Amino acid sequence: MSDTRRRHMVLTMFLHPAGYHNYSWRGPDSRAEDWGRLDLIADLAKRAEAAKIDAVFFADTTSAGPVLGGDTKVLGVYEPITSMSALAGLTKDIGLIGTASTTFNLPYNVARQFQGLDTLSGGRAGWNIVTSWIGNENFGIDEMPDGPERYRRANEFVDVCRKLWRSWDADAVIADRESGRWIEPSRLHAIDHDGEYFKVRGPINMPRSPQTGPVLVQAGSSGPGIELGATYAELIYTAQPILAKSIDFYANYKEIVKSKGRRADEVCIIPGILPIIGRTEAEAEEYAAELESWIDYPHAKAQLQSSLGIDISDLDYDDSVPVERFEGAAFNTPTSRGAIFRAQAEAGKTLREMIRASAKASGHQWIVGSASRVADLMLDWFERRACDGFNLNAPSLPEGYHRILDLLVPELQERGLFHDEYAGGTLRENLAAGR
C-alpha cells in the first residue's frame, strides 16, 4: 500500500462504567452504586488523560430493553452529550467521543450539540455515528426501518451536519464594537439542503468550532456501514478477533477509502481489544479466573441465545454447538459478530467456552497475560497492518481499567509504540500526529 504508515498507535478507551466483562460488576470493588454519577466518569477520564490516551469513548442506547435483560454492556446511564460536556470542564487534552443516532435525531440538533461540545472542549469532540436497531418504541415508530433505509438516512444526515459546520466562515465573528456588529453577515451561508429525508435552510446559529465540527467516528462493518465510514469517518471501530481476517479487513477498507478520493491514512482503523493483565503471567491467569467465577451461566446462556437468534436451550454447557444452527446471512457475512460465533462452533467450542468468550469481549479480541505479552500482540497487529491502533476495553472497573493504564500503556510508551505527550491542541491533530 502506498499510504504513509503511522509511527505510533492510536489508543482510545471505552468509558464503560460496568467493565467490559459482562459480570465483572459483581466483584466486591466495582462501583456499581455510582453508575450514572459524574464522579465515576471524571475519575476514569482523568486517569486516561494522565496516561495520554487519545480519547475516551461513550456508547449509547435509547432503549431500556438491554438493561431489563441484564445486559450491563448496553446501559445508557451516561447520555453522551451531557456526560462529555461535564467532562470537558474537568479535563484539558483528552478527546471526548460520544454516540448519537441518525435514526432518532434531526441533523440540525445534532450539529449544534457537537459543535457546542467541540467549542466548549477546545476542539476535543468526536461523534460516533450510528444507525439504531432498537428503541423505536420510544419515538413513535411502529416498526424499525430496514438497514438500507437507515443508512440512506444516515448518509444524508451526516452530509447536512457537515454543511452546517461549515456554514460560518472562520472569520465570521468580527466583534466590532464601534459599528455594533458582532458578525459579518456576508460570512454566514445558507445551506439550502432539500433531500430525501431532510429539508434544512441553515446556517447554523453558532460560530465555527475549533475543529470545524467533531472528528467523525463509525463502527458499522456491514456493506452500508463501510460505505458510510469510508465516505465520512476518520476513525473506525471494529470487532476483529482474528489476525488474518483483520489484515484483509484493513486492506480492503483502505482501498474503499481511496476509491472515495481520500488518502488511506485519513482513516484510522482500530479494533477493540480486552486485555486481562497481570504483573506476571500467573497473576493474569488468576485475574482471569476471578472474572470467570462471577459468570451467571443460566443468564449468560439465555442472553447468548437471544443475541444470536438461534435455539441452544437443549444444549448442556459442555456440549458443542452444532454448526448447522448457524445458518443465514447474519452468520455468513465475514465482518459480522455472528460469524465469529459460527467460527467458534466450527472449531468445536463448547457452549461453556462460547459463554466465557462472549462474557469477556462480545466478539472482540481478548488476551490474558503480562503487559509485555499483550504489547507483543498489539505490536504484531500494528506492524502487519491489521490496525492503526486499538480501542481498549477494560474487563473490570476500577481494577482492570487501572491495570491497562498502569501496566500496559507504559510498556507501549517505552517501546515507542505510543506517545507520552499529546502532540496537538485538538483531537483531530492528535489522531493525525502519528503519521
Q: What do you see in this structure?
A:
The chain is of the alpha/beta class and 435 residues long. The protein has one domain (10-275, 366-432): Luciferase-like domain (TIM Barrel). It has helices at residues 38-50, 65-68, 80-88, 107-120, 147-165, 223-232, 243-259, 281-293, 297-308, 329-332, 337-346, 351-361, 371-383, 399-414, 427-432, and strands at 10-14, 55-58, 95-101, 125-130, 173-176, 181-183, 193-194, 199-200, 215-218, 235-238, 268-278, 365-370, 389-392. It has an eight-stranded parallel beta barrel, surrounded by seven helices. It is globular and about 80 Å long. The mean pLDDT is 93.
Main traits of this protein?
single chain; 435 residues; alpha/beta; TIM Barrel; two-stranded antiparallel sheet; 15 helices; 14% strand
Helix % is 25-40%
CATH topology term: TIM Barrel
The CATH architecture assignment turns out to be: Alpha-Beta Barrel
Widest sheet: strand ordering? 1-2-3-4-9-10-11-13
Secondary-structure element series: EHEHHEHEHEEEEEHEHEHHHHHEHEHH
Can you identify the CATH superfamily? Answer: Luciferase-like domain
Structural class by sheet pairing and helices = alpha/beta
What count of helical segments does DSSP give? 15
**pLDDT below 50 for ≥5 consecutive residues: which ranges?**
none
Largest sheet, strands/sense/barrel: 8 strands, parallel, barrel
What is the averaged pLDDT score?
93
Tally of structural domains: 1
Strand residue percentage: 5-15%
CATH class annotation: Alpha Beta
First-last Cα distance = 14 Å
Query: What Rg do the Cα atoms give?
Result: 22 Å
